[in-house]
Known about the structure:
By secondary structure, this protein is an alpha+beta fold. Residues 287-291, 513-537 and 995-1007 have low confidence and may be disordered.
Amino acid sequence: MLAAVFGLLFQALLSYHFGAGAETDAWFMSLSIYAFLGKFLMLSNVKSLALPVYRRLQASEPASAARLERRLLLWLGAGTGALSALLVLGAPVLVDALAPGYHGSQRDLTVALVRIRTPALAFLAVSTGGLVALEAAHRFGVTVTAQKLGPAVVSLALLAWMADRFGMVGVGWAGLAGGVAGGLVALVAMASLLRPGGPVPSAEGARRADVELRGIGRRWISFGGSNAATFVGEWAFRIAASLLPVGLFSAVLYGRMVHDLLHGAVNDSAQTVSLPRFAAAASAQGSGVVGQDSPAARVGEQLRESLGTLSAATLPLAAFVAVTAPWSVALLFGRGRFLADGMLGPSAVSLQLFAVAFLVQGVVQLLFSAAFASGRSELVNRVQIAGHLVRAAVLVPAVMAFSYVGLVGAQVAMNVLVLALLVGFSPQEWRLRPLQALKGMAGPGVRGTLVSTAVAVALHLAVALRLPEPLSVGTGRRLAVLAAAALGWLAVYGVLALVLGVPALRRLAARVRLTGAAVVLLAVWGAASPGGAAAQQTGGALLPADHWSRAVLEMLEAQGLTAVGASSAGPLEGTRVDRVLAAAEGARSTPWAGEALRTLRWEAAGPGALNFAGAAEAGVSSGRDWPGGRDGVWAGAAARVGGERLFAHVAAEAGPGRGAHVLVRAGVGVRLGRFALHGGRERVQLGGGASGGMVLSSLVPLDGLLLTTAEPFSAPLIGPVALSAGVFPMGRYEAVEDPWFALLRVAVHPAPWIEVGVSRAALMGGHFPGGSVPWDPRSYGPDSGSMEPGDVLGILLGRVTGFDDQVNALDVRASLARAGLPVLAYGEVALEDKDRSWGDGAVLAGVLVAPRTRTPVSFRYEYAAFGDPARWCAWCDTLPAFWYNHARFQSGWRVEDELLGHPLGGYGLQHLVGVTAFDPSLRLHLEVAGGRLRRDRWNLLEDTRPGWATWVRARGRMRWSRGLELRGEGAWERGDGGWSAGALRVSVAHLLGPPGRRVEAPAPSAR
């Protein structure tokens, strides 16, 4: 889909600069001739013929499969290279044969563009052949990158750079560069097979590979009849296109671009994924009884399932595209030269016709895949001959009678004919023949798809007739109309499809847990409900997870002066913290709450539409065997721009051992109603206590997107609800290449004194090349597949795949102030992957005592344990869950030396006691914690810090009246075995309040 989007942007830019006229007709004709040459060479057929053979050889003798692939690439590269050279010389003859209606300068430009583009055929051939092995290994990302994404990105970048400075010839060179880039991507990915010194097949294996290669060549040649029919059909198409008035051919192909996006994202992807599945079904061992477990029956079963799923998606999608075609075309091309040429109407009509072609083509491509996988390539050959010959016969008369409508209509008619022939000649075991298909049509799933689509189309057509003309409104209004139509379409079709039992929707609903559905409904409820929140004072900027205000919030919660929950996750929402402190100040029972509020507003840029605050810092640090600990002098700076709707912050450090710089925090955000969207680098904590949460602690900076509730929204029965969700690429992770980290937390507050939260996070995706695991001597092989985009939602809502490692937790926080005790009690129960042992969990429990004194102070005790010390389920099995470890994610839940999960590192236990104190003016802040811990087998830090240890951590700050602040923090740990580790940082910072001192810095206390 991304590749198709880049293609759309390319065409939109092309239409803006060049419009729809003689030049663009020549460009599109050259592209059409290039595509014709690719079809003439039947490169897609070569891949479809070779993939099942390669897969079969790889299962028995991988070296023979590698030899087959190398020789296939050699023949394809040499053959197409020689042919490309001949075609460059014969380009004038080729253009005269395929575009006889082009004359003069239009013909000359078309010849030049064909000569420029033709050399890319060799790269296309090599990339197509190379993808045989990659698709057999389910490396579909390389497939899309080489054939779609890479060419689209390179072409778009070059066109954006050159605009119209070099004319249409420059656009031709951009297209060539895109084709070459795609071929190079495939060659790089195939380097392991092409590298000398690879596996050498036996003599029998080499002979077998050569025999199979000759067999592929013979079957490819057997497509000669189909190839000839393709030539005749494509020749007729280009003759008919050259007869159109100037500009109409371009208008047709502009309209086709939306179809190409859908076709590439849906149909091509479905065919790419289905071919290996069908091939595996055809080659699987079975009883061999015809009609029961024969290869044809197994392929038919897979085919019917794929057809049902694809149809349930493409039928409503095609109908929606047809209804909104004028708005789509106006949004993409309604400006510049294209608008002046007046081709909006023909483009919209063409898109509506191509929407029908998209629907039929998807089904045809799945049938082609099933035929190739089951060795019935003659079926494909037969129907292609008939389809192309019929299209060739009707094309020119149709164009002469109906102009551009006849050109597109003939294409749609050919697709319908090919589909009918495929179904009519399909094997009986596939159960697709007319009488068998009619029986299947009686099923509730098919009826549901048809009825729900028909009702949704009728409703949207009724709305479309009442909308203004797309050209009478601006670009923003066009986008708004399309977005509203899409949301309405999803609502109408989705509800009807679910009620009427469409299989794809039913399966999706079954995967979404009740809790997930509740989260979505509550989010919609809260976003749609009217406001009522207090005015924002500090803007929406995030506060660090370890900000001093967290300790203040915990004291207020323990004393019952504010609702429980604001301190349970990090980073802290500046707006929410401001509101809590303002409410506590209003109670006037805690004088230091007002000091905390004024300090926060002074630090966070104060009230107003836009304000700035910053800090400069310099200090010294020392570290020994401690993550992030370094010796030397360092300097840092931070800045924050805060507003009610837009906000940004950045903090960076530089010094010895840190390279050029270290980005500590950075991000931009926007307030969206009750929600806030943040992008950048942030340390995130979900639940937990003083030393972090079981799912995620704020030790590792994550780069990505984070969605939070700046103001919890109210839901019936369960009260305020807070949500955090984020997705972060993990480029620094080892072993697995480029995985992702995703998190989700939902916290509900049935009463002001209690919060119940559910947290989960997952390391997922990427590519694992294989290897051994520290806690398992076996060697694991590389990934045999890849994660699909649809898996992400399922993982966040509880589904387990082979490409993720999940941690889940349930936590509760409660204030005992109503019982007369200034105590905040909290607890957390966690599990590592739901398919592991339920009896091998983790627990965290703690109490924080905050007596009501003039000086804010709190005392804490906390217990954390994994494995045996945490066992809470006596009747569960005790198989190890391998906390924070996974066969695929060998580095565990950590990035470099820093842990993602609880600082204990997994198996073991920890006792913590601590004290936090402020002076009444909050200019002095000190936190000290320490205790005993034990790290057991399979702990992430077992190798460097095993067994029992004693530890101490402390941090503090002291501020003077003019914004100068002395800061310090340190940590030390010593094991009973004699090892030790520690780190220390001391610095001086200068805080800069808002310009004009709109919020005064807090005055020193009288004491």
